[in-house]
Design goal:
With 154 residues, this protein is an alpha+beta fold. Helices cover 38% and strands 10% of the residues. It has a two-stranded parallel ribbon with strand order 1-4. β2 and β3 form a beta hairpin. The longest helix has 27 residues. The protein is elongated and about 105 Å long. About 5% of the residues have low confidence.
């Protein structure tokens, strides 16, 4: 009878030892799955020439938009493949699922129905209208005063 109790105690010890070793391994060797899963995945990025996305003669990229996306790639563990085109084609490719990310898109309710926008914008847009200070025909706040006027965009 004592022999059975001893065998049972040994089994209990082995089971407790196994649980203890498993817990130690989980603490010492944490498992990171999300970053590893994305590290092999290539993200297709729409790239169009503009003030914030510049490609020089050597093919080197620079600019605020480029640096912004590089920071995201660093946090997410992504690798980018740049798809270069003009803005209109990049936007169409995004709509068709041919690229994964396109920076520099203005938020609209219509676009938000089919696209995901980040919680925080990557920038802010402001547009101003300038006129000669002596021009009294145009009045701020009165859009009718702009009717029939010629303009030039920069």
């Amino acid at each position: 009878m004592k022999k059975c109790k001893l065998v049972q105690n040994i089994r209990n010890f082995k089971f407790c030892y196994f649980i203890f070793c498993t817990m130690i391994c989980l603490v010492v060797f944490p498992v990171s799955t999300s970053a590893q899963e994305n590290s092999d995945h290539v993200i297709r990025v729409g790239s169009f020439e503009e003030t914030y996305n510049v490609v020089n003669e050597k093919g080197e990229r620079s600019g605020y938009g480029y640096e912004y996306l590089q920071d995201i790639a660093g946090y997410a563990g992504w690798t980018y493949k740049y798809i270069t085109s003009d803005w209109k084609n990049c936007f169409t490719q995004l709509e068709n699922g041919e690229i994964d990310i396109l920076g520099g898109i203005s938020y609209t309710d219509e676009r938000a129905e089919n696209m995901l926008f980040s919680d925080m914008p990557m920038g802010e847009e402001k547009y101003y209208i300038y006129t000669d200070a002596s021009n009294k025909d145009l009045t701020a706040g009165n859009l009718d005063s702009f009717e029939g006027k010629k303009y030039w965009c920069v």
